[in-house]
Fold CRISPR-associated endonuclease Cas1.
Amino acid sequence: MTWRSILISKPARLSLQQNHLLIRQDEAIPVPLEDIAVIVVESREVVLTAPLLSALAQYGVTLLTCDEQFLPCGQWLPFAQYHRSLKILKLQIHMTQPQKKQLWQRIVQQKIRNQAWLLDYSGHDIGAGRLNALADEVKSGDKGYAEGQAAALYFPLLFGDAFTRSQENAVNACLNYGYSIVRSAVARALVQYGFLPALGLQHKSELNAFNLADDFIEPYRQIVDLLVYDAVCAQSLPETLTPETKLRLVGLLCCQIMLDKRRYSLLAAIDRTIQSLQTALTENNPKLLKLPQMLPLKEHDYE
C-alpha cells in the first residue's frame, strides 16, 4: 500500500537508484518507490532523470509540478497500466444518460451530507439539519441544483458571512491547494483502473482533461475544508501558504475517512471509490458506488 506524500520545496536532483527515489540535496535520501503515492515538486530548481520518470509511471506514482505561485499546475500519470483498459473504456463510453444522472445524484447527496457533518462539527446544527434535508431531496442529475444551494449556505456558516470562494485570501489559497492535491489523487486512481479522466458524468468541458476527476472529488473536498477550518479556529492559518501548511495539506492523503463502514486513509478510500464505479457500471446499479463519510481529522493507523 502506497502511503508516502513527498514535497520537494528546495533545489534537488531526483533520480532512480535500485527501485528507490534518490533525493540529492544536502545529503542523498533514498525512498522506496513502492511506498510513494504522490510527489509534489515545488522548487524551480529541481532536476529529474528520465529513468526516474519511467519508474514513477510503472509504480503508479503521481508527480505534480507547480507554477510561479507554487500551486500544482501539471501532473505526470501512468499510461495504460490497467489490464483490461478496453473493457473499462467501453463501459465508460457507453454510459447512458440515466446512469450518469443517477451516479451524479449519489455524489451530490454524499457531498452535501459531508458538508452537513462539518457544519455540525463546527457547531452549526441548524445549518447541518437544513443540509441533511436538502441531501434527501436531491433528484436524478441534481435537477434542482441542490449542490449550489448547499454551497451558498455552507461556506458562509463555516468561514464567516462575508466569505466567498472568489476572494483572494489565506483560506481560499489553502482550499485551492488542498483541492488540487486531492484531485490529483482521484485522477491517479481513475487512470490506474483504466478510466479516461476527460469523460465526465456532470463535468463536460472540452478544455478539461480531468472532467471525471472533478466529478469524483466532490464528496472528498470536505476533508480539505475540515483541515482549513481547524487551522482557522486554532489561529494557525498563515497569511500565505508556508511549506509547513503545504505539508499538512499534502499529508491529508494519509488521514482517515469512512467508507462502507470502515476507516481508510484518504488515498485508499479514493481507490475503493473508483473500484466501486467499475462495479456500479458493470452491474448497472448506481447504489453500488461507495462514497466517503467524514471523520475527525486524524492520520490513519496502518495495521
The mean pLDDT is 92. The first strand starts at residue 4 and ends at 8. Residues 97-121 form the longest helix (25 residues). The two ends are 11 Å apart (CA to CA).
